[in-house]
Write a structure and sequence with these properties.
heterodimer; A: alpha+beta; six-stranded mixed β-barrel; 17 helices; B: 223 residues; alpha/beta; Rossmann fold; 7 helices; binds adenosine-5'-diphosphate; binds magnesium ion; Lipoprotein-release_system (chain A)
Chain lengths: 416, 223
C-alpha cells in the first residue's frame, strides 16, 4: 500500500523535472555505452588474435621426434669407462610414423575428435626462374585438412577442389606466392632436401593471417609429396587432430603419446607465448573495464546525490506530515530503479550501435592480418552485466543519500 | 476534561553563532477541546516552541506529552507516525510540495495513514478544500498558487486526518479578513467537536476569540 504512494510520488518527481531526469538517465547511459563498446572491442581483439593463432595450429600434433643422438658402440659395451669417440655419424632414422594412416583412422573414431589429418611434411626449395626460396610443403588429404583448418575460407584465390582433381597441384601461402611472383595457374619448381625435383602448378593461394605460415607453407596432395620424397604410400610424418573442446586436447594428447609411443604436442604447449599474451590482454581488459565502471559509478553517484539533495525540502515536508524514513528511501529507490533501468537500456542500445559501427568500419591491416574490419564481439553476457551494473549502481547511489536524507529532523530544513 | 498536551520544563538552545537560550523552562498544559493562542513579539521563540511541541524538533531539554503519550526520546519513525495520525501542522511558510496539485497535497498524509480508500480520501480532501474555499483550485499545482491560497491548502492538509491536535504558526498570516474569519470559525467548530487547537498569532482579534491566550516574552511564558 505504502509502495503505491511512494511510486506515485516518485513518478511525479520524475515527470515534474523531465530535463533533470533525462540528464540523470544519460549519465547512466554514457557509462554503460562506453563499457559495452570497450569490452566488446577489446574482447573482440583478444578473440581475434587468439583465434587467428590457434585456428592455424592443431589441437594435438603427433610426430616422430627424430633423436639422432646415440651412445657410441664402446659406450654401450663399457659404460663408465674412459671412452673417446671422434666424428661419430648420427643414426639414420626416418621421421615416419609407422602405420600412420591406420593410427589416424583409429584416432578419428575416438569420442570428441572432430577430425584427423595424416600428412607428410618436408622442407622444400621453391624455384621460379631466378628466384629461389626455402619453405615447407605438406602433403595432405585436402578434404581432411580442410575439415581441420577451414581452408576453404582462408583461400585468397583458386579452390580446394582444384587440388583434389590435379595431382600436380599446389596451394601456396599468399605471401610466399607474392615473393615468388606466381599466381594461380603459374608453375613452380619444387626441390626437396633429398634432391628430387618436380614442377607443380599453383591452383590456389591461402592466408591464415600469420606471417610464419603464409610466408613459407604450401599444400600438395599426399601421394605427390610421398613420391617426391621417394617413399611408399603409407609414409606419414605428422598426424594433426582437432577436438570439440580445446581443453580436452591437453589430456588426450598425453593419452595418445602413451598409447602409440610417438611424441605429441598440444596447442597450449605450441603456443605458450601467445597464451601468455592472451593473459596479459585479459588483465588489461579487466583493468580498463573496472576503471570505466568505477568512473561511471562515481558519475552516477553524483547525479543521484544531486537528485536527492534537490528534493531535500520535499523530504522534510513529507516527514513533517507523517512519512517515515523507509517511505522516503522507497521514493528515491524507485526513482533510481527507473533511472538506472531506462538509462541502462538506452546505454545498451547505444553501446550496441557503437560496437556495430566499429564492426563494419573498414580496417586496412596491410594484408599481414586477415581482417577487413575491426574485430568486435557481440556477447549477451556483456549486455546483461552492463545492465545489472547500471541498475545496481544507480540503486546504491540513490540509496545512500536517500537514507541519509531520511534521518534528518524536518525542521533542520524547514526552519526559516 | 483530559490533558491533551503537557510541556514540562522545556529548554532549547541554539549554538549558531554562539550558545543562546531560546526557550527557558517552559511548562504548561492544554486540555482536549481547548482553542489556545500563543502571542508575543517577533523573535521571542513562538515558532521554536511550536516545532518542539509538534515533535519535528527533537533537540531540547524537558518533556513533551501529547494525547497521553510521552514523546520525548522516541525514534524518528515513531514520531513521524504519531504526527501523521494525531497532529495537523500549518507552517508559517505553508510548505506544500510544489510539483503536486492542491488536492494531492491534501490527500498525501491521508494516503500515508491508509485509514480510508483512495476514493474516500479524495472525497474527504475535496470536502476540506471546499470548506476553506479552495475547491476551484484543487487541480492546480501548488507552485502556481498565491501565498494566501497556499496557506489555505496547508490548513486543509492539516485537517485531513482529523487530528487530535492542530498547530498553526500564524495560520492566517497571509489571509484577508473574510478568509481569516472563515478559518477562525472552522477552528472554533473543530474545538467544540473535541479537537485541540494551538495557534501562534499576531492578530489581536483572532487571539481575543480563543479560549486562552499564552503570552511569551524572550523565551519565557508571561504568567
Ligand atoms: N536556526 C537558528 N539558529 C540560530 N538562531 C535561531 C534559529 N532559528 C531561530 N533562531 C533565533 O531564535 C529566536 C526565536 O526565533 P523564533 O522562534 O522563530 O521566533 P518567533 O517565531 O517568535 O518570531 C530568534 O532570536 C531567532 O533569531
Ligand atoms: Mg515565527
Amino acid at each position: 500500500m505504502n509502495l503505491r504512494i511512494a511510486s506515485q510520488i516518485a513518478r511525479t518527481h520524475l515527470l515534474a523535472k523531465k530535463r533533470q531526469t533525462l540528464v540523470a538517465m544519460l549519465g547512466v547511459t554514457f557509462g554503460i555505452a562506453m563499457f559495452i563498446t570497450m569490452i566488446s572491442f577489446m574482447q573482440g581483439v583478444n578473440q581475434f588474435l587468439e583465434d587467428s593463432a590457434l585456428d592455424a595450429s592443431p589441437h594435438v600434433r603427433m610426430y616422430n621426434e627424430v633423436n639422432t643422438q646415440r651412445p657410441s658402440l664402446i659406450d654401450a659395451l663399457r659404460p663408465g669407462g674412459f671412452n673417446v669417440t671422434y666424428h661419430q655419424k648420427p643414426k639414420n632414422e626416418l621421421a615416419r610414423i609407422k602405420n600412420g594412416l591406420t593410427i589416424a583412422d583409429r584416432i578419428e573414431r575416438e569420442p570428441n575428435v572432430l577430425g584427423v589429418s595424416p600428412q607428410v611434411a618436408t622442407q622444400a626449395f621453391y624455384n621460379n626462374g631466378p628466384i629461389q626460396l626455402s619453405g615447407t610443403i605438406s602433403g595432405v588429404n585436402i578434404e581432411r585438412e580442410n575439415r581441420l583448418y577451414n581452408l576453404e575460407k582462408r583461400l585468397k584465390s583458386g579452390s580446394v577442389n582444384a587440388l583434389r582433381s590435379n595431382p600436380d597441384g599446389l596451394i601456396m601461402g599468399t605471401t610466399l606466392a607474392g615473393k615468388l611472383n606466381v599466381a594461380t595457374g603459374d608453375k613452380v619448381t619444387i626441390t626437396t632436401p633429398t634432391g628430387s625435383t618436380r614442377v607443380l602448378r599453383v591452383v590456389g593461394t591461402f592466408g591464415f593471417g600469420i606471417g610464419t605460415i603464409d610466408n613459407t607453407k604450401s599444400y600438395a596432395n599426399l601421394p605427390t609429396v610421398q613420391e617426391l620424397l621417394g617413399k611408399d604410400p603409407s609414409y606419414i610424418t605428422d598426424i594433426h587432430l582437432k577436438m570439440s573442446d580445446p581443453l580436452l586436447a591437453i589430456p588426450f594428447g598425453k593419452v595418445l603419446q602413451a598409447q602409440y609411443g610417438y611424441h605429441t604436442e598440444d596447442w597450449a604447449t605450441a603456443n605458450t607465448a601467445i597464451l601468455a599474451g592472451e593473459k596479459i590482454r585479459n588483465m588489461l581488459t579487466y583493468v580498463v573495464s573496472i576503471t570505466l565502471l568505477v568512473v561511471a559509478g562515481f558519475g552516477i553517484y553524483n547525479i543521484m546525490n544531486m537528485t536527492v539533495m534537490n528534493k531535500i525540502k520535499d523530504i522534510a515536508i513529507l516527514k513533517a506530515t507523517g512519512f517515515e524514513g523507509h517511505d522516503i528511501v522507497a521514493i528515491f529507490l524507485l526513482q533510481a530503479v527507473f533511472i538506472g533501468f531506462s538509462g541502462g537500456l538506452l546505454g545498451l542500445g547505444i553501446g550496441f550501435g557503437l560496437s556495430y559501427l566499429l564492426s563494419i568500419t573498414p580496417f586496412d591491416a596491410g594484408g599481414f592480418i586477415s581482417i577487413k574490419t575491426f574485430p568486435v564481439i557481440f556477447e549477451p553476457k556483456y549486455y546483461v552485466n552492463g545492465l545489472l551494473f547500471g541498475v545496481i549502481t544507480t540503486v546504491l547511489a540513490g540509496y545512500f543519500p536517500a537514507r541519509k536524507a531520511s534521518h534528518i529532523d524536518p525542521v533542520a530544513i524547514l526552519r526559516g | 476534561m483530559s490533558t491533551v498536551l503537557a510541556a514540562r520544563h522545556l529548554n532549547k538552545y541554539f549554538y549558531d553563532p554562539e550558545r543562546f537560550r531560546v526557550l527557558s523552562d517552559i511548562t504548561f498544559e492544554v486540555q482536549a477541546g481547548e482553542f489556545v493562542a500563543i502571542v508575543g513579539k517577533s523573535g521571542c521563540g513562538k515558532s521554536t516552541l511550536l516545532y518542539l511541541l509538534s515533535t519535528m524538533d527533537t533537540d531540547y531539554e524537558g518533556q513533551i506529552e501529547l494525547a497521553g503519550t510521552l514523546l520525548t526520546g522516541r525514534s524518528q519513525d515513531y514520531l513521524a507516525h504519531f504526527r501523521n495520525e494525531h497532529l495537523g501542522f500549518v507552517f508559517q511558510f505553508h510548505f506544500l510540495l510544489p510539483e503536486f496539485s492542491a488536492l494531492q497535497n491534501v490527500m498525501l498524509p491521508a494516503l500515508k495513514l491508509g485509514k480510508y480508500s483512495a476514493d474516500e480520501i479524495e472525497a474527504r480532501a475535496m470536502a476540506k478544500l471546499s470548506m476553506i474555499g479552495m475547491a476551484d483550485y484543487a487541480l492546480k499545482p501548488a507552485s502556481k498558487l498565491s501565498g494566501g491560497q497556499q496557506q489555505r491548502v496547508a490548513i486543509a492538509r492539516a485537517l485531513i486526518n482529523d487530528p487530535t491536535l492542530i498547530m498553526g504558526d500564524e495560520p492566517t498570516g497571509n489571509l484577508d479578513k473574510a478568509n481569516t474569519d472563515n478559518v477562525f470559525s472552522i477552528f472554533r467548530e473543530l474545538a467544540s467537536g473535541g479537537q485541540t487547537i494551538i495557534a501562534v498569532t499576531h492578530d489581536p482579534d483572532f487571539a481575543a476569540g480563543t479560549d486562552r491566550v499564552i503570552e511569551m516574552s524572550d523565551g519565557l511564558i508571561v504568567p
